[in-house]
Amino acid sequence: MIGHSFMGAVHSQAWRTAPRVFDLPFDVDMTVVCGRDPKGAARAAERLGWGDWAADWREVVRRDDVDVVDICTPGDSHAGIAIAALAAGKHVLCEKPLANTVEEAERMAAAALVAGEAGVRSMVGFNNRRVPALAHAARLIAEGRIGEVRHVRAQYLQDWIVDPEFPLVWRLRKERAGSGALGDLGSHVIDLLQHLTGERLTGVSATQATFVTERPLPTESSGLSAQAGEQRGRVTVDDATAFTGRLEGGALVVVEATRFATGRKNALRIEVNGSRGSVAFDFESMNELLLYDADADAPETEAGFRRILVTEPGHPYLGAWWPPGHGLGYEHAFVHQVHDFLTAVADDGSDPRPSFADGLQVQYVMRAVERSAADSSRWTTIG
Asked: Over 70: is that where the pLDDT of 111 sits?
């Protein structure tokens, strides 16, 4: 595993837990964790359960005892690590978004295509596909339960940088993160809405805003926390992004991604309206799915959304966990991700989903969003 901060800790827990919950096709040996600071990498290995540590990712991808490389670094290093690992015959799991630019993502997708012909697999980590309630929603939509999709509205709302004195961490620097709320949060809902509907976005009209343009430089940072110093620097990413769009089938889409929604901690919300019904989800109630069935045999005085508690053994992934009614949490989607990734590697037929090609398509959408926002919200075709 390359990187051991917030995402590295979450992925480590998933690698530790998945073999204890699921009957996996491989044994999992957490061989080595890598970080730029040797002391930090050594501490992470001990704390997170890795057998060894390294300070140079190039050393890791060359190791004969490594079969999988899990990339948990900022986006500016994804392309270099992933392409080298694939060329070395390692299966690759890469955190989202796939890269900082379309050009980098195209090179990654091309490398994955070549590696795939030799049986080397790759996947991008849009973990929210593996939340059981959302996996169940995808199943219902695919089965035609809500009919023809007509509207999708999706939001990802957080407030962790509302304080103007919060330090200028790497997520607020374009050269490290690629973009701000768009890539950090918006990429999740872009992937999710296309996954749920089975349709790609074809065009967008977008706007972006940066509310705090200067922040104190951090003296130290870890995950989403940091300590502020006295010097200041310029914020070079968006604080909030909003766009309208259309899907291939003609459905209207409205998306909002912000890290300035005061009071909202992790409100990933998505609602899909169809000709025969609707589904709605909010991550802050992640074990619940709301379903409206227009064909249900109920009087109009009792019609409305029905709350489904997604904890039954027949729901996606739940058969491996606890008795009905005992909900799962944030970390479990990453455990499911490990299960699906290794199952696909064992199958040796095609790349697991979302593939690097899927990640590239999300990059095309984000590029169109940025171009539209920079051009007075002009309608911009994706591609």
From this structure: yes
